[in-house]
Design goal:
This protein is mostly helical. It has 12 helices and no strands. The longest helix has about 45 residues.
Length: about 230
């Protein structure tokens, strides 16, 4: 994956670390693992993870078959060794192994086969969504990353990626091309998180008020009933 589908050389600046970004650009599995790790940690930490993991495995790349066959405890140790690869190294080690085991079973261990012959964006989204650890949102973000930075653009890829596929957006890792865009994406995420928290608080406040109103009405009805008067 050193070149995009358009034949152009790839230069990524997601991890903000040259060696880690170089691995992401040439290794389909590294890109998938980085996307898998991209939750509840800074994006650059997540996407540096594949490079650190490869180093700890004594290699310059990741191999799905090797990871799939690795002893679970020993593999977890690769994640938990300080500095840890993730905020939740144990659970993420299991997820990475599950992902690689799935790739070995379904795609012969070739991560790029997930998208290589996908005829439409919807088909690619389905394949990504089937990967262990990939929900709809993560699948859409990775689809957008493939389309925007790797040149993987089956028919309808932008629509399948949803808002993450929008040209010029700053919503996800798919839009990070350097420090400036990283800051913009991070700002968007913080704003979205704050908006979600505000909405949740408003919903809880409304529910509490509704409950209080119902309780007051019930009390008033009970007080005015014939049985209560007698």
């Amino acid at each position: 994956m050193t070149k995009s589908d358009s034949g152009k050389d790839l230069t990524l600046r997601i991890a903000q670390q040259p060696a880690a970004d170089e691995l992401l650009a040439r290794s389909p599995l590294a890109a998938l693992v980085g996307m898998l790790l991209d939750q509840q940690v800074p994006m650059e930490w997540a996407f540096t993870g594949p490079y650190t993991l490869a180093e700890r495995m004594g290699s310059d790349d990741l191999d799905a078959a090797e990871i799939a066959a690795y002893g679970p405890e020993a593999f977890t140790a690769l994640f938990t060794t300080k500095p840890a690869l993730h905020r939740y190294p144990g659970s993420m080690a299991r997820r990475v192994q599950q992902l690689c085991q799935y790739l070995v079973t379904e795609y012969g261990g070739d991560a790029s086969a997930v998208w290589r012959d996908a005829g439409t964006g919807e088909e690619l989204l389905r394949r990504l969504n089937d990967l262990p650890g990939f929900g709809t949102q993560k699948a859409q973000i990775f689809l957008a990353l493939l389309g925007k930075q790797f040149g993987v653009r089956p028919t309808g890829w932008r629509a399948a990626a949803g808002a993450y596929g929008e040209d010029g957006s700053r919503r996800s890792v798919a839009d990070i091309t350097g420090p400036e865009s990283l800051a913009e994406v991070r700002a968007y995420k913080q704003e979205a998180k704050a908006a979600k928290a505000t909405k949740a608080a408003d919903t809880a406040k409304t529910a509490k008020a509704t409950k209080a109103t119902k309780t007051a009405k019930a009390a008033k009805t009970a007080k005015g009933s014939p049985k209560a008067k007698g």
